[in-house]
Write a structure and sequence with these properties.
globular; 4-stranded antiparallel beta sheet; 6 helices; 9 strands; 5-stranded mixed beta sheet; alpha+beta; about 230 residues
């Protein structure tokens, strides 16, 4: 049976297939208008609403024929375009939090725009936080950005699930622009050397952390020089 576009098979009940959808909500910030749309769609198609751990809203219990209609009524894009892509960028509240040390919100939304739907060797999560409390479980993300008084810190290789792995520190004391380029460098190198299906943490373990950092920083330096010449 063909896969329903951007709908996840939830379960089969009494022979009927029920689906869930997870629309794109950058950084978890949703307008009152869109909240009203979620409520309207939920009532219209008799489905449930769930807040996910990934700062999004999921509609659960949709009939197969209602998946595309629900997206159309919401007027929102799917959060995940492919299992082999950047899944989402989770962002802490940033400068509106008293613990924030850098403007993680601005950087996080910039990275979300850059990496939304970007192809990758495996499902890839990115997290951006404004202090070392590391909200959003950023150390369990494939690529993460933290902040302290000196600037931003880029980490990589985190993972939860069946094979948990803490992230490795790649670079620190970065400006927002430098952190953005460093995340791009980590992503570019991962896409360059990892076979399909390999998680970033496994890539780091396979080639060694020292080599990974060395090669990523070479890519980063080229990006930095290119940025200065623009």
């Amino acid at each position: 049976m063909p896969q329903v576009a951007y709908g996840n098979l939830q379960k089969i009940k009494n022979g009927k297939r029920l689906y869930s959808i997870t629309p794109r909500i950058p950084g978890g910030f949703v307008s009152a208008t869109n909240l009203e749309k979620f409520a309207e769609v939920s009532r219209k198609y008799k489905c449930s609403i769930k807040l996910t751990s990934g700062q999004r809203i999921m509609l659960i219990g949709l009939k197969e024929d209602d998946v595309a209609k629900a997206y159309e009524d919401l007027g929102l894009e799917p959060a995940v375009k492919s299992q082999y892509s950047v899944k989402n960028v989770e962002i802490c509240p940033g400068e509106i939090c008293k613990r924030s040390r850098q403007n993680s919100l601005a950087l996080g939304l910039r990275l979300e725009r850059r990496f939304y739907g970007a192809p990758a060797p495996n499902r890839t999560k990115i997290g951006v936080v404004g202090c070392l409390n590391a909200c959003t479980s950023v150390h369990a993300k494939d690529i993460g950005v933290l902040a302290n008084e000196e600037g931003f810190i880029v980490i990589a290789g985190g993972s939860a699930g069946y094979h948990p792995r803490l992230s490795d520190r790649i670079a620190e004391n970065l400006t927002a622009d430098e952190a953005y380029m460093m995340v791009e460098a980590v992503y570019d190198y991962y896409c360059e050397i990892a076979p399909m299906g390999e998680k970033l943490g496994n890539t780091i373990d396979r080639i060694g952390l020292d080599k990974f950092i060395e090669d990523v920083k070479q890519i980063y330096e080229k990006k930095k020089i290119g940025g200065q010449n623009e």
